[in-house]
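Re-run with default settings, no changes from the original entry. Doing this only to confirm the output is reproducible before filing.
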Amino acid sequence: MNWSTIQNGWSDYEGDAKREWSKLSAGHIRSMRGQRDQLCARLQVAYSLSAEEAERQISAWQWKQKEKSAPGRS
């Protein structure tokens, strides 16, 4: 799944993002509207991560979304 799919359907992914990164408020997650760079910046601040680690976490989360939406999965 490419990031534009997540960004375009952000409202469908907000809950999963909140569960993954509980230190981010629901308002912060909603306001970023799927902008990957904003998510990365917020993760760096909230979790004291390097940009590289924040990107790694986002990529891992993105992969989970792909697995979740795979045909035959519920």
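Residues 1 and 65 are 8 Å apart (CA to CA). The two ends are 17 Å apart (CA to CA).
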